[in-house]
Amino acid sequence: MNKNTRINALLLLVVAALAVLPLALGLGDGQEEPFTGADAQAETAITEIAPDYEPWFSPLYEPPSGEIESALFALQAALGAGVLAYYFGVRRGRRQGEMRATARQDGGGAGPGAGKSAARRN
Amino acid sequence: MHIAEGFLPPAHAIAWSVASAPFVVHGVRSLTREVRENPESTLLLGASGAFTFVLSALKLPSVTGSCSHPTGTGLGAILFRPPIMAVLGTITLLFQALLLAHGGLTTLGANVFSMAVVGPWAGYAVYRVLRRYDVPLMVAVFFGAFVADLSTYCVTSVQLALAFPDPGSGFLGALGKFGSIFAFTQIPLAVSEGLLTVLVMRLLVQSSKGDLTRLGVFLAGKQARTRTVETETVSR
Q1: Do A46 and B60 lie within an 8 Å CB cutoff?
Q2: CA distance B42 to chain A (A)
Q3: Among A20, B83, B186, B234, which residue's beta carbon has the most beta carbons within 10 A?
Q4: Separation CA B114–CA B119 (nearest Å)
Q5: Where are the transmembrane segments (chain B) (predicted)?
């Protein structure tokens, strides 16, 4: 693993640790419902501050169950991840193509190293 | 940061929509101009929108024992400037309001204002100031994304406190209440978002140096100031 990959892996590891630590340390213990959404807690706080407040509009479409809702959230994440992966895939392919093309142009004499640095400069 | 459908009184809902509208309209114009003048940007624009899509779907546990999600708006704001991020953020919020019953149409204006307007601008401002003083790129990116994330949730707290001041302690009391729900929970998540944004920026530096150079992402010191001036003269 080169240095770049190691740093990237470390970044992901820290993010994962930040997500897992609250669960591992049991920071939700003692709450009525541990790890509820902050958005839902805000709704509860509103009804505490203004008990008479009635939401005056309701969603046009509501996922019929928690399963459907999580499916739609997964769909949202998958769409985003798919586009990101496509982007980096296209970029990588294009870069490799450029490298190969310059290596071919430079011919045998220049060697692949020269082709590589030329592609980087582009 | 999603204020639920119908959970803002009509006057507030309208006011926030009116406040957000010019940013989104200006953003749509910037976006169409960017695509027309630099068609090669389209792919990276899609990737920036996709980053917001992924991050705002990731509900993560936090130290407060509750869950929240990052916003992913810092990256696009740093790459393409905040007006364009206003559009990408609005698309994400609209998707969630229509399909997930997360947020809502009546609260869209308020949610757009926090996530797609204030977040990107605050994050971008921090990034620019840090770059102006020659802070390393990845450090500036981290704090830009961190601030974009956290400021979004602070704005949500203010919006709710304005709409629902505490009967006893007033606006400030309510701000403390909503702030402790949103802002405190968000701090570790904003760190995560900063790190993920740095990760993607590192991958972009490897894969798309040309695009980043054209967008002026690498400019630092005195040059960093010329970035907007240049883009603005070009646009006129």
Answers
A1: no
A2: 10
A3: B186
A4: 6
A5: 41-58, 79-102, 108-127, 139-161, 181-205
B51 contacts A80? CB cut-off 8 A: yes
How far away is chain B from the Cα of A110, in angstroms, using its nearest Cα? 24
- The whole-angstrom distance between B153's CA and the closest CA on chain A is 10
Q: Does A52 touch chain B (CB under 8 A)?
A: no
Give the whole-angstrom CA distance, residue B85 versus residue B58.
19
**Residue the block writes with tokens 């430079």:** A106
Helices B82-99 and B119-132, packing angle to 10 deg: 150
Return d(Cα B174, Cα A46) in angstroms, integer: 9
Percent of chain B past pLDDT 70, that is, above it, reads 95
Q: What is the dihedral of CA B190, B195, B198, B199, to 10 degrees?
A: -140
The pLDDT score that the predictor gives to residue A27 is 87
CA of B31 to nearest chain A CA: how many angstroms apart?
18
Q: Between chains, do A88 and B4 touch, taking CB under 8 Å as contact?
A: no
As a whole number of angstroms, the distance between CA B71 and CA B41 comes to 22
Q: What is the pLDDT of residues B14-49, one digit of tens each?
A: 999 999 999 999 999 999 999 999 999 999 999 999
Domain that holds residue B135: 10-235
Q: Give phi and psi for A77, each to the nearest 5.
A: -65, -40
Q: Average pLDDT per run of 10 along chain A, which is 122 residues long?
A: 92 95 87 87 92 92 91 95 97 92 77 49 48
Q: Which among A49, A63, A79 is the nearest to B174, CB-wise?
A: A49
A residues 64-83 closer than 8 Å to B (CB): 69, 72-74, 76-77, 79-83
Contacts of A38 in chain B (CB under 8 A): 66-68, 181-182, 185-186
What does the domain layout of chain A look like in residue ranges? 1-57, 65-122
For chain B, the average pLDDT equals 93
Which ranges in B116-216 belong to alpha helices (H)?
Answer: 119-132, 137-163, 170-207, 209-215
CATH number at residue B204: 1.10.1760.20
